[in-house]
Amino acid sequence: MDQSFIRPEGATAVLDLLAKSLGGLTPELRKAATHVLEHSNLISVSSIREMAEQANVKPNTLVRMARAIGFEGYEDFRKPFREKVIKGQEDFPDRVRWLQSLAQDGKLAGLYSEIATASIANIERQFSGTTSVAIKAAADDIVHAPTTYVLGTGMANSIAAYFAFIASVAIGKVTAIPRDGLLPADGLARAATSDVLLAMAFKPYQHEVIDAVELAVSRGITVIGISDSPASPILAGAGHRFVVPMITTQFFASSVALMSLLETIIAFVIAAASPEAVKTIDMLQHRHELHRSWSDGER
User: Fold this and answer.
1) pTM of the prediction?
2) Which residues form the SIS domain (predicted)?
3) What are the CA-CA distances from residue 151 to residues 51, 107, 159 (Å)?
């Protein structure tokens, strides 16, 4: 082992080091590392042979992966996970009983119960997988940037527009890309080094999104990357990285954790914004109050 190597403190730090090292690994080592990152909950409970079989690589590949990022071997790499198992979901007996009871309530109760379980688990994993410090750092960069570009395609396109609208109410220059008929990279034509790109990408990753993120990184633009895997190509050069759990029992990916993360970032943006931003929000609230709205007494 390299004598200058400083062992990361804790399993989370080890995963972060592995994710940052992906770009420098060979294709076979990257394949192993991607599996380890996406199934980190199995590291402490699975043997090296089991992990290798699941990743469809040879056990020695995991050993070489660990050595490539500074560890003596796979057992040395796995030590922090054995010392403290990363637990993405806490055990709440009352909630478990409630979820189980849902399955007994009607014809579609099983489906209802499955969705409820997955949604709650995704949100728990989201908030346990990041910190207020990490979110504040991303929000501060958005607040101080002359312009923040919010990139989302497919499912994330309307979500990007929603985030841009709410954030622009608070701080002004926040815009969603791509615009109609344009590629994501086209939206960065006037972007400066001091700007920020908040980019979202989920499997299957689209090349035009990856290209836009790589363009931003090459220009020195701060990237806030949000994806569904630590091995996502848009996270490699990102200054802020957030991995969103999207577990679902249906054919479509769950977006509940993604919305929770974005709403939290917006809340932090508003908290860090100037007094003028608060005045703007108050003015919009006052405008809503001026409009006549339906009341419970109406028929």
Assistant:
1) 0.72
2) 138-275
3) 35, 40, 9
